[in-house]
Amino acid sequence: MNKTTPSDKEKIEMYEKFLHYINTCVTCANNERIKDLVHNADMWSYAHRAGNGELSDEEQQNRINANFWNLLK
User: Fold this and answer.
1) Is residue 2 part of a domain?
2) Is residue 1 in some structural domain?
3) Cα angle vertex 14, ends 45, 39, to 5°?
4) Is 29 part of a structural domain of the chain?
5) C-alpha pair distances (Å), 8 with each of 11, 13, 15
6) What are the pLDDT digits (tens) for 39-73?
């Protein structure tokens, strides 16, 4: 899965949607969905640290991109 690096505009849109989804889930008491969204954020955060230098810069960026595009899944 080689998704493109998001532009600044795409990042802002994703972050706004992500926070809106969380707010909607809180309002509706959808705890399972909140759990899924937090897990997705954790995976995206971890992608920045994973590999311990074993991955090339391109491989690392691909991992980060893939997890970014999956934040709302």
Assistant:
1) no
2) no
3) 35
4) yes
5) 5, 9, 11
6) 999 999 999 988 777 889 899 999 999 999 999 99
Q: Judge whether 3 lies within some domain.
A: no
Alpha-carbon gap, residue 5 to 54, rounded angstroms: 20
Instruction: Provide the number of structural domains found in the chain.
Output: 1
CB of 14 closer than 8 Å to CB of 6 = yes
A 10 A CB-CB count for 68 gives 19
Give the Cα separation of 10 and 16 in Å (integer): 10
The structure tokens listed for 7 are 């532009």
| Structural domain containing residue 58 | 8-69
